[in-house]
Design goal:
transmembrane, mainly alpha, membrane, Growth Hormone, Chain: A, transmembrane helix, Folate-biopterin transporter 7
Amino acid sequence: MDPVKWMVGIGFWVQGFRCFPWLGVNFFLKDALGVPPSSLQLLQNSANLPMVAKPLYGLLSDSVPIHGQRRLPYVAIGAVLQAISWLAIGLWSGSAISLPVLTFFLLLSNLGASIAEVANDAIVAEVGKHQKQGSSTSSGQLQSFAWMLGSSAGALGNLLGGIAISSNLSPKLMFLYYGAILIFQFFILICVSEKSLNLPNPNNKLKSSSSGGGFSMQLSQLSVALRRPDITRLLIWFFASYAVTPLLLGTMFFYQTEYLNLDSSIIGGSKVIGQAALLIWSIVYEKYFKKASPRKVLSTLQLATAVIMLSDVLFVQGIYRGFGIPDWVYILIFSGLAEAAVFIKVLPFSVLVAKLCPPGCEGSIMAFVMSTLALATIVSGYFGVALASFLEVSENDFSNLPLCILIEAGCTMLPLLGSSWISEGKIAEKKKE
């Protein structure tokens, strides 16, 4: 296998498998610490705050080499930070860990994950941009390959997580297992030289400049790129497509586990279905939609997400139950698809941004994209908590949940009004020629 694909595959697989310990976190918060749904969702969204600083990590990766290497050392640093956090949570005695301490370690874990993801995304972006279209790592193909690896790892992580929890395996053991995987990844990374990957380095001036000069140069290039109208409008639309939607993940988790009393294996299985859907989508996109209009693809996916949310309204009102469809069947299949639908447009968006991205700041631009996604989902999560609180939806009262979901679906359709801001990528194609 191409060494680039090998390293990208490992990186995206390990990050995709983060679903395994995070599923344990949900049940640990609910069962061991007795956290209510609003607090659970607030903690989960707040733990994503380090991901908002991804542009900084991208600038560092682009402009500050470590022992002459710009990518793999940052992936290794990310693996170490994650390993420290998960092992610390797993080794903490019993359930005596306090919520602030747990929050700190989850923040540290996501800091490490953010650094690793930025470096991995930069490898994908710059290789896909500089290789010839006929090669095995051409533009779009490496993104799809990485997406497939991450999705398959996510499916496996959720499947094993659901089985582990339903088998009464302590979530702390799940944290320890994932920490061991991260340590294994770290040792692989320190044994591989980045030179063996033959990564392109379009900005050779960085080699002769100081770290501060290189950083300033990358910051300047990023600033120029973000002032391009096609990129600016695209990022604003992408942010709005998430931020205006009040996500109700914490509320739905409690509804499924407390109100419907569904087994954890069903919850894990639904997430497996979602990851499998993302995996299938990556294959379908690569084969049929990669050359389609990005505006049409992204708009269609946004509309499909709203339609799936409307299906949840019918489910909560018991309409499907009246047709003889058991609750566990709907949750297993459609709940997973609903979660996947929220993030299904990330792949075509990433491919489009990679086409528009100016040479030399791939890491910075892709990091800014992921930062935009992180900030938007945090805003969306807080919006969801506020909506549930306003309509008095709690772990003891789900009577207004259908109205919450209806508002969620309606808000999801609002970004369709600004779909003209989605670039078709034609400017980048002309510049390349």
